[in-house]
Structures are given as structure tokens and as C-alpha cells.
Amino acid sequence: MALPYRALATDFDGTLAHDGQVTTGTLNALRRARDAGLCLLLVTGRELPDLFNTFADAALFDRIVAENGALLYCTASGRVQQLAPSPPDALVTRLTREGIPMSVGSTIIATVEPHEHAVLAAIRDFGLEWHVIFNKGSVMALPANVTKATGLVPALEDIGIAPEQTIAVGDAENDHAFLAMCGLKVAVSNALPSLKEIADVVTVGARGDGVAELIDQVLSGTIRRKGDEERET
After folding, report:
1. Entry pTM
2. CATH architecture of 89-143
3. Which residue in 229, 230, 227, 203 sits closest to 216, CA to CA?
4. CATH superfamily of this structure's domain 7-83+146-232
5. Best CA proximity match to 167, nearest among 200, 209, 216, 189
6. Does residue 232 carry a pLDDT above 70?
């Protein structure tokens, strides 16, 4: 049976993983998806070294969009493509001087609430065209045009798959952009209400269980969008 979609793009924390851990059942579901011909893409706010230190099975994915869209990694070749400029030294210096707990990637500056106020003040004072993105309790600062969607576009182009042929699944604020561009928008059951509202499908299971549930339904041809029952009556 030909699958209606060619790729699965999934967020990591809170979607695939719980506290950074992916269960064996979820990993097996991802392998079933690959065996059935689905390309797998991981779309995460994490920096690559942090992801690799946390997730030993990243090689299951054909491409990894990291730093919330600022970095693209090809698992087969090891090629890393920086998609956005590095953070200004002055911004990093100021936040360091102010004692803001943060991690600085190739582009991203990541911290936690309530430090978004200090980050926004610094961005304003330096006149930077940057924005702050939330991921539940996490806070990410990036150039204004960088989102998970802008990172997913070149990832899909790399493998020759259109957004309409792609399933996107997530759980938080920063997942809105890449879900909105894809052919099937899926929210796991622990997702924020705002993400569930735009989703075509909301899983019964939470996090990785929801992703495994989704994969099994796609492979069996039983996936149902919200409102299918009403349309059939």
C-alpha cells in the first residue's frame, strides 16, 4: 500500500522524548516508519552537541533541524549547514555580565523564564532584529526570520519532498510554524491547547506514545483528521 505521506517531521522534547529520554517502543515505531519508506526529520530547539549527548539514536533521522531552525545536519554525511548568523558578541557579553543563565549555540541563545525580560531589553537596546520564542518554560533568542519552519524548508528540499507530503508533530509554542507549513498537522495529547487547536490530528497518547500511535495509524491507513466523522455522516 502506497503511503499518503513521504516524510515525518517531529519535535524532540515533549513530543518524541520525555525528560530527554525516548522509549524503546517509540524507537521501534520510528524504525517501522523508516522501513515503510517514510523519511524522518527531527526538528528541535536543542543545540547539536546537547542533542547528541542526550539522544543516542539521532542517526535514525535523515535530517536534523537544530537550534529552532538555525542549523541543518545531515546524519549520513555529517554535514552541518548554518542557516543564520552567529549571535552578536555584544549581546552575549551583556547577558553574561548580567548573570543570565544561558547556552549559546551557532546562532541561538537559550535560557529559561523569567529571563526573557533581560534578553528582550538587551535586544531592544542594541537595536537588533531578533525575536524571542517560547517553548513552554524555555526561552530562545534568534534572528527575527528564523523559525522551525525556515529550517525545515531546506531540509525537505535536500531530500526532495514537498511540505504537503510531510507529517509534522509537536507539542509547544515554537512548533506552530513548522506544523502550519505541512500537509498533516499533529499535536500529541500533552501539547498546549493552542497547538491542538490548529492540529488536524490530536493523539490519544502523550509524547513518544503519541508519536508511535500516529506512525501505526499512518502505516495502517487508519489516520483520521478532526471532523472526519462529521463529514462521513
Report:
1. 0.94
2. Alpha-Beta Complex (3.90)
3. 203
4. HAD superfamily/HAD-like (3.40.50.1000)
5. 200
6. no
